[in-house]
Amino acid sequence: MIRTSLLATYLACVATSFAVPTSNDKLNVRQAGLSERKFTCNSAVIDFSDPQALSKFNVEWCPQNVYQNNGTLVWRLSSECGTTITYPLDFQYGKIEGRIRMAPGSGVVTTMLLAGPAPSDELDWEWVGKDTWTAQSMYFVKGQRVDQEAQYFHTPGDVAQDMGAGFHNYAIEVNKDSIKWYIDNWLTRTLPKTDGVPFPSGASGTRMGVWDGSQTSGWAGTVDWAQGPFTAEIQWFKFTPYC
What we know:
Strand 10 and strand 11 form a beta hairpin. The chain has helices at residues 6-17, 23-35; strands spanning 38-39, 44-47, 58-61, 66-69, 72-77, 83-86, 89-90, 94-101, 108-115, 122-128, 135-141, 144-145, 151-153, 168-174, 178-183, 186-192, 205-212, 230-241. It is built from two helices and 18 strands. The chain is mainly beta.
């Protein structure tokens, strides 16, 4: 089973994983970072070797599980919670890119995405920890899947590398007439805008982190907490509006 939109999936997963606020409270927390978004034409390159780098993001959930260490930003999934950070500015068209090491482990999901306010358009790179050899791209329009199967990609040249063992560059590019996904500057997928076919034109806000995918009916697997905690890392993040 392929998951529903991240907003819906995340809320379902945290509700069954550990003690958290009510569903309405969680929905407000998740939407707060998206409902008051501001568009910008200013590019940014954020290097997590800078001790102040995390201050340039909003930590939406579980701040104890996101921290800087040895030149990277670490996202940690524990039995208590995962974590989500957001970049405070949006673009209408542009590109986000991060140099990321995904988190290995059954049930552990690492995510870099663009999304709008709920019911959200959404553009994803996701890494499911039970399979560290592929990255998954998917998209949603108004919270609904259009392509019913995720598309799976290896590293450049379609040569498999363990994405949980090292860092790779991942990017999502939003153009007026297409969406593009990249791994290490290799164009892996293009979604063209086609008349009569729903298109995710409202995905504009950056969200990144790790979460427990145990409740996704087998898509991500089940977390074995005895093997944790689980960590993903990002070395740098680039935000490039096309204005």
